[in-house]
Amino acid sequence: MSKYSKEDIMRFAKEEDVRYIRLQFTDLMGMIKNVEIPLSQLPKALDNKMMFDGSSIEGFVRIEESDMYLVPDLDTWVVFPWGNEHGKVARLICDVYNPDGTPFAGDPRYILKRALKEAEEMGFTAFNVGPEPEFFLFKLDEKGEPTLDLNDQGGYFDFAPLDTGENCRRDIVLTLEKMGFEVEASHHEVAPGQHEIDFKYANALKAADQILTFKLVVKTIAQKHGLHATFMPKPLYGVAGSGMHANQSLFRGKENVFYDEKDELGLSDTAKHYLAGILKHARGFTAITNPLVNSYKRLVPGYEAPCYVAWSAKNRSPLIRIPSSRGVSTRIEVRSPDPATNPYLALAVMLKAGLDGIKNKMAAPPAVDRNIYVMNEEEREENGISNLPATLKEAIECLKADPVICDALGEHALIHFVEAKEIEWDMFRTRVHEWERTQYMTLY
């Protein structure tokens, strides 16, 4: 049940002197789209009568079936702390519906809701997610275009004056807090110009909404500081890329079902089955959690990003780490996703993978507490450690071969996603890159 009513929303709009409302939704690639309406149209929007043309949105529908309805989720009402000269702007995140009143199968938010419903039917009341998105800040040139000049030379946990992004980051945190975020930490990351802001875990739907809101805030505030924020996974060669580790746990009421005080690691059987499901389907869901050609430049040895399918409670090289907190904070941290992912789809496929592990009581392989990066291929094979896909092309093939992940997406989203990604791969594969010219032009 929504905690706000239509009357509440109308009242908030009046009290806050809101002039415009953005009805926000997301395309298949995780790009925020919105229809902006004046305050006079808000009652119509709250009656779910706002229509838009779905054929113009990536991965939605063909021209002949283009009418779609936006159904606002009233609990997502928020007023942007930055206004424009014409008055304040608020937003409502919407679900997308077909004209016949059924949810649209290609709406990423609906895909996550469907996975959450399955968890609920299995007796879990909440799937909690704590995301850790990283980003880079680059300077803008005099035309307002992003350069490759970093705004600082700081390193992990550095502080000003080395970290000139600190003021921008502080501004981002203050803005997020005004918008209802509970920010837990913000710091400089490993690479120069790289930052991380962590916010409190929430149920998956809210967490996915927050990730997209977070990206919007970061980009908006960075621009005010003359900087360009990018969530591209690996903008620079030779330094760490940007990840978005996803901390996950399942609850029944107030009880974290991943915790078992009698277990040596404090992990319940349910947690181990879930973990086994994630490991089993990791290769299948990587195209979703790491959706760009560029994503695979991050998933290489040597930069703390995982490239092997394994788990550990001690080690930062595997795909899954078990953070040390126990009790209500017991969780598993999946370390492969990057911030270019569509968060609704990423959380849906990881949840479905974990639930498959629980349903089939999958046994987790032994933990790998050694540094996997220093193992040779034979040792990895002996330990049953497989590799994550090395390219987007390989990841797409793994996705198509995994029925559980295909089912998580549903036929409509799967077909459109694969088609778009195969085109992307082909464009990359056929382009001649600077590296090739440097390498071959004079030699041959």
Secondary structure: elements and pairs:
Blueprint: H1 6-15, E1 18-26, E2 32-38, H2 42-46, E3 50-53, E4 67-72, E5 78-79, E6 88-97, H3 108-121, E7 126-140, E8 146-150, H4 166-178, E9 183-188, E10 194-199, E11 202-203, H5 204-224, E12 227-230, E13 244-252, E14 255-256, H6 269-289, H7 295-298, E15 308-309, E16 311-312, E17 320-321, E18 332-334, H8 343-359, H9 377-382, E19 386-387, H10 392-400, H11 403-409, H12 411-430, H13 434-440
Parallel strand pairs: 1-6, 16-17
Antiparallel strand pairs: 1-2, 3-4, 4-6, 5-6, 7-8, 7-10, 7-11, 7-12, 7-13, 9-10, 13-14, 13-18, 15-19, 17-18
Helix pairs in contact: 3-8, 4-5, 6-8, 6-10, 8-11, 10-12
The CATH superfamily of the largest domain turns out to be Glutamine synthetase/guanido kinase, catalytic domain
The share of residues in extended strands comes to: 15-25%
Radius of gyration: 22 Å
Number of helices: 13
How many strands appear in the DSSP assignment?
19
Structural class: alpha+beta
CATH topology of the largest domain: Creatine Kinase, Chain A, domain 2
Helical content stands at 25-40%
What is the CATH class of the largest domain? Answer: Alpha Beta
Biggest sheet details? 11 strands, mixed
Mean pLDDT: 86
Ends distance: 68 Å
Give the tally of structural domains.
2
CATH 2nd-level architecture of the largest domain: 2-Layer Sandwich
